């Protein structure tokens, strides 16, 4: 359910950043999924599935292959091509010119 997915994403971000909760714990994610309107048992079964474990491992490999080593990282995409804008936290004052240059180049491409 795409609508519930965005609600869940927001709840996970709030739990991590404003409540200091460990969102790597399945029990926390199940609770948040329930708050987002997803049935607990359905979410828990999907979360623990072999398919999800495989997909998660593939995502970690993809991130490592991109050379991402910091958090947060900002990638920009244009015509299927990814650009690494920041690898780790950058204040807006440092990020804005990078993003502006990328947007200019993307508009001309």
Question: How would you portray this structure in words?
Answer:
This protein has helices at about 1-15, 25-35, 40-45, 50-65, 90-109; strands spanning about 75-80, 80-85. By secondary structure, the protein is mainly alpha-helical. The longest helix is centred in the middle third of the chain and has 17 residues, at about 50-65. The N and C termini lie far apart (about 35 Å). It has 5 helices and 2 strands; from the N terminus they run ααααββα. Helix content is about 60%, strand content about 10%. It is elongated, with a radius of gyration of 17 Å. About 5% of the residues are buried. The chain has a two-stranded antiparallel ribbon. A hairpin with a 2-residue loop joins β1 (about 75-80) and β2 (about 80-85). The chain has 2 domains: about 1-50; about 75-109, no CATH class.
Overview in brief:
The protein is mainly α.
Portion in strands:
5-15%
In the predicted model, the low-confidence regions spanning at least 5 consecutive residues are none
Sequence of secondary-structure elements = HHHHEEH
The number of distinct structural domains comes to 2
- Mean pLDDT equals 91
Number of helices: 5
List how many beta strands DSSP finds. 2
Largest sheet: 2 strands, antiparallel
Calculate Rg over CA atoms. Answer: 17 Å
Strand order in the largest sheet: 1-2
Helix content: 55-70%
Class from secondary-structure proportions: mainly alpha
Overall body shape: elongated
For the termini, the CA-CA separation is 35 Å
């Amino acid at each position: 359910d795409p609508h519930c997915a965005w609600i869940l994403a927001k709840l996970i971000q709030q739990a991590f950043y404003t409540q200091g909760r460990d969102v790597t714990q399945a029990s926390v994610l199940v609770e948040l999924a329930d708050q987002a309107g997803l049935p607990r048992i359905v979410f828990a079964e999907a979360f623990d599935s072999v398919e999800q474990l495989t997909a998660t491992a593939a995502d970690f490999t993809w991130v490592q292959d991109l050379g991402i080593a910091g958090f947060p990282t900002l990638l920009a995409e244009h015509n299927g091509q990814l650009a690494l804008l920041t690898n780790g936290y950058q204040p807006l004052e440092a990020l804005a010119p990078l993003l502006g240059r990328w947007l200019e180049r993307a508009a001309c491409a």
